[in-house]
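pls design
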């Protein structure tokens, strides 16, 4: 327990400079973009005079220098204040908390499905390298990996929602259905079947291939030959000796893929009209709402840091050598 808390503490401290780099880098990148939220607002209302433009810029602090605004943003962030959305005219924290659960449903389901199925199929494929089922799974995973997630989402939507009418075409739940409790859970699950399938298929193929490659490497290790010589049964050899050691790169990949799945959810949320975190980012870009986009990127960075911290803990649990090195440093 103490070593786990020590590991969490070290990761939390090392995450502070990473977060600062993300905040400062994103701030100046957004500064380089032409126009701002006031320009977008004036275009949406058909224009405005110079006095109105100056008044709006002063109201939202856009008339100050970039360094002053950066200092104000960082100090506000220390108070857990993400600022005010110019495009939605609401606190950014409220907007994010409103949309984040929908993305959690989508990301969590897609990550769990792709990791569990991809790892299981990778074990099946890597148990007998070069066999017919190994070649079949390898070709299938390559085909899946080559398909863009948005195209797969559109195909699934046309076939299973429009033609067969098995699932809803869009949204996270039936609007104004009045459902509660278990009925609401079932309704959300039914809405998530197609988007989760589209998002998880790509990453399933990736986990399968990493697991298979890891097992192919482990089969050549001396300790596996020694286990064979002892007469250990093949299922036990595959699951306990080969698959367990080959799982470590897949767990590492799970942490690295957290940011990719968050990015992939932007596309899938747009295809299935899910009011989630990714779609909020798309709306922030359309409205040129830089404060909202900053808030979304900061929260995304925090999520990725948190996921990687959890992955480090799992990695230390699976490989005692990692935990021992953490204790000795």
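designed seq:
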């Amino acid at each position: 327990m103490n070593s786990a808390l020590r590991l969490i503490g070290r990761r939390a401290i090392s995450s502070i400079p990473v977060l600062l780099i993300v905040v400062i880098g994103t701030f100046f990148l957004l500064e380089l973009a032409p126009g701002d939220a006031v320009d977008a607002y004036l275009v949406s209302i058909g224009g405005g005079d110079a006095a109105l433009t100056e008044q709006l810029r002063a109201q939202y602090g856009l008339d100050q220098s970039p360094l002053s605004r950066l200092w104000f943003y960082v100090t506000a962030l220390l108070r857990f204040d993400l600022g005010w959305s110019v495009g939605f005219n609401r606190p950014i924290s409220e907007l994010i908390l409103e949309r984040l659960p929908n993305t959690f449903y989508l990301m969590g389901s897609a990550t769990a499905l792709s990791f569990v199925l991809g790892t299981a199929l990778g074990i099946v494929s890597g148990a007998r390298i070069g066999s017919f089922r190994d070649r079949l799974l390898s070709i299938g995973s390559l085909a899946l990996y080559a398909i863009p997630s948005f195209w797969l989402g559109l195909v699934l939507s046309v076939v299973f929602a429009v033609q067969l009418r098995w699932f809803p075409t869009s949204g996270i739940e039936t609007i104004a259905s009045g459902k509660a409790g278990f009925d609401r859970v079932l309704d959300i699950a039914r809405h998530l079947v197609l988007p989760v399938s589209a998002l998880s298929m790509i990453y399933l193929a990736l986990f399968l291939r990493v697991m298979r490659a890891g097992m192919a490497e482990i089969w050549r290790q001396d300790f596996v030959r020694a286990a064979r010589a002892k007469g250990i049964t093949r299922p036990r050899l595959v699951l306990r000796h080969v698959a367990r050691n080959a799982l470590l790169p897949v767990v590492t990949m799970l942490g690295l893929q957290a940011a990719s799945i968050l990015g992939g959810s932007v596309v899938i949320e747009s295809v299935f009209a899910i009011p989630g975190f990714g779609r909020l980012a798309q709306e922030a870009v359309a409205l040129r709402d830089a404060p909202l986009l900053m808030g979304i990127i900061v929260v995304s960075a925090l999520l990725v840091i948190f996921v990687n911290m959890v992955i480090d803990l799992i990695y230390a649990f699976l490989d005692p050598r990692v935990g021992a090195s953490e204790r000795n440093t």
